[in-house]
Amino acid sequence: MKIATFNINGINRRLSNLMAWLADAAPDVVCLQELKATDRQFPATALRDAGYEAVWAGQPQWSGVAILSRGSKPVLTRQSLPGDPSDTQARYIEAAVEGVLIGCLYAPNGNPCPGPKFSYKLDWTERLLAHAEALWQEDLPIILAGDYNIVPEPRDIYETKSFKDNALVQPESRALYQRLLQQGWTDALRTLFPDETIFTFWDYKRDRWPRNAGLRLDHLLLSESVAGRLRRGGIDRSVRGEPGASDHVPAWIEID
Question: What are the pLDDT digits (tens) for 104-115?
């Protein structure tokens, strides 16, 4: 099974990019973030014609998440992150696909920092930690994939001082990510590439893509039984260079 996560940065605006990648990469499961589309605007028919069924939580502007599955319908188990009924931002969706529970997440950016958006980022991630701990106790094959909007370590960002006040690299943010790993989750890409610098995001500004001034923001965390079946993975870097590309690229793994 090949599972990918991809912040598409506007699914309808970049639908042709998404379709081309799906045809080339042929993932079995895809977690999409930043749909920037309402439920009614989600291109379910076009995706079905490409061989993918989907569940989604749509939202305009900056949010929205979806899980695609090739050849079978994902079984929706959750459409929001528990812990705060007042939170209406579409940032989490969960579904079962071929015996694996898939959690697709789009964590808050948190900028400007400090401020209310950073506080929301920390609170949201605390709720993710609580839910992840509950899932871990179920002892199921689980993958939590998405745009975590956290740079886990200094080596996960290009050499720069311009991000020193950015929410993505703050000690509080990184500590929350480490707490997830301490629960037992395996960071699949770092496991597969323990000594390599790998990026999944290049901002549109300041020639960051041509300069390879990237960040690793997109992660796939695996429960114990899935981690034991991890075989290979990577990032589809060339997607970033296509016309009209998202500022993120797909990150993917294959499991037995």
Answer: 999 999 999 999
Catalytic residue among 147, 177, 218, 219: 147
Give the start-to-end residue ranges of the domains of the chain.
2-255
Residues 28 and 253: beta-carbon distance below 8 Å? no
Say what the pTM is: 0.98
Residues of the chain predicted below pLDDT 50: none
Fold of 2-255: Deoxyribonuclease I; Chain A (3.60.10)
Classify the C-alpha dihedral 169-250-19-59 as positive or negative: negative
Helix (H, G, I), strand (E, B) or coil at 222: strand
Specify whether the CB–CB gap between 223 and 253 falls below 8 A.
no
Burial class (CB in 10 A: 0-12, 13-18, 19+), 200: buried
Confirm whether 248 is a catalytic residue: yes
Known binding residue 131? Answer is no
Beta partners for 33?
A: 7, 65
